[in-house]
Amino acid sequence: MAPDALLLDHWDLLAKGALRGPVLDLACGDGHNGLFAAEKGCSVILADISESALKNAEIAAQGIKGDVTLWQVDLERGDDNPLQSESYGVIMVFRYLHRPLMPCIKKALAPGGALFYETFTVEQPRFGRPKNPDHLLNTGELLDWFKEWTVIHAFEGIKEQPKRAIAQIVCVKPEMKSAHADFIEAFSR
Predict the structure, then answer these.
(1) For the ranges 6-20, 34-48, 108-122, 163-177, which has the lowest average pLDDT?
(2) At 176, is the secondary structure helix, strand, or coil?
(3) Domains in the chain: how many in total?
(4) Which of 5, 11, 74, 88 has the alpha carbon at shortest distance from 44?
(5) Taking the model in full, what pTM does it have?
(6) Which CATH number covers residue 27?
(7) pLDDT digits (tens, 9 = 90+) for 72-89
(8) Phi, psi of 186 (to 5 degrees)
(9) Which end of the chain, C or N, has fewer beta carbons within 10 A?
């Protein structure tokens, strides 16, 4: 299965982010996006709650040159953050929304790392599933979550083939300034 167009359109950013740590494909399903990155030589972690989805991804990963790790994890297990802080060079999320995980994603990405996120908006029920508002982004919500990051690409609207209402963002987490840099900047004003 081909990777999502968002990854293809911004492959260079994905490759640069992968230099900072592994690629984490959250709620990966069949893993086609993460396996695309692995095929390009990235170290990839495929994370999903479904054992059968991970088994299918494992079969699909045979023969791929990149390092692929399977991680069966419940991403919706309450207040417990399942993601390691600043451990991933790229995080990708497609067709999945669990709002309590958003702060965890923000903490988990390494400074200078890239986020690829695409999921459905509140307009989606006109076109089919999902229909549960808990799984649908409100207008402007995705961009609002990451507004302080460097946004490379943002889209919210209707896409064709298949027709669907989505929001997308590709952004880079800011580099951490050292305390010394902050002092120099403040002192030089």
Answers:
(1) 6-20
(2) coil
(3) 1
(4) 88
(5) 0.88
(6) 3.40.50.150
(7) 999 988 777 889 989 999
(8) -65, -40
(9) C
